[in-house]
Amino acid sequence: MQLMQQIEKMDTMSIKSKSKGKWFDLVLANVIAIMFVLLGFFIPVLSFALAFIVLSYMQVGVYGFVLKNYQGQSPDFESIFLPFGLILKTLCLKIIVLAGMLIWGLLLIVPGIIYGLNYSFAAFILFETPNLSCKEILAKSKQLTMGKKFQIFLMGLGMIALVCLAASVGVGLYYLFGLFMSVPTFLTVLLIAVPAIIMLVIVALPLFEIYLAGLYENAKSVPEEKPAKQNKATKKVSKS
Q1: What is the pLDDT of residues 189-223, one digit of tens each?
Q2: Cβ contacts of residue 173 below 8 Å, gap of 6+?
Q3: Which is it for the CA torsion 15, 17, 20, 26, positive or negative?
Q4: Minimal CB count within 10 Å: which of 56, 61, 112, 119?
Q5: What is the DSSP letter of 41?
Q6: Are 103 and 114 in contact (CB under 8 A)?
Q7: Cβ atoms of 116 and 94 closer than 8 Å
Q8: Torsion angle of the four alpha carbons 215, 62, 113, 212, in this order, in degrees rounded to the nearest 10
Q9: Which residues does 160 contact at the CB level (< 8 Å), separation at least 6?
Q10: Alpha-carbon Rg of the chain, whole angstroms?
């Protein structure tokens, strides 16, 4: 209950106003990315590695597409596909973050989660400033997520809860059909997976991405306000 109350207190009005009329575009962008990732699995020998590379590459493009929509622009779907020269950088960022989460997660689960939350804005930063190095992108993301990690964590839990809720509907259908007939294994998988996938693609992913874009936009303005406050403080000291 507390989790849902926290999510309800989030800036949902801002999300609705920024994404109004563009939700279909956000959903379609995620569908395009997922399709390309799935295609990687059909390549012999390099299936998993290629899918991972495509996932790293497409995630940055989709996040950039969502960010442009949040900013009030109307980007083309071609903007999802970044210059191929950035493939290596997107892959390096993904490997560094996942490796850090794995290492810290082996020690304790919570530090691993916090480590991953530190770099929630890395894809946005890479999209806007592709000239930065991986080290600079990670450092900037860690700085911008200060004070916002708990909000990101709660929103992530909320999206997982939505997907689990949809999957539970499939489980209910499985038991309902099981009362009248024996349900084949493939049908059982479909009954559980299809509602969860639909919820993930149509609601969970777009909602999480547009919310994350909003947090990122708000976080970017914070460092610019600090020097002004410091200058005012120094002026008061000098006058006294």
Answers
A1: 888 888 999 999 999 999 999 999 999 999 988 74
A2: 191
A3: negative
A4: 112
A5: T
A6: no
A7: no
A8: 10
A9: 204
A10: 21
Q: In sequence order, what are the residues at sequence separation of 6 or more whose Cβ sits closer than 8 angstroms to the Cβ of residue 53?
A: 40, 87, 91
How far is the C-alpha of 201 from the C-alpha of 194, rounded, in Å? Answer: 11
SS3 125: helix
Count, residues in the chain:
240
- Within 10 Å of residue 43's Cβ, how many Cβ atoms? 13
CA distance 184 to 207: 34
Distance (Å, whole) CA 222 – CA 172: 47
Closest listed residue to residue 81, CA positions, set 32, 114, 115, 116 = 32
Give the Cα separation of 119 and 135 in Å (integer). Answer: 11
> Phi then psi for 142, rounded to 5 degrees?
-60, -35
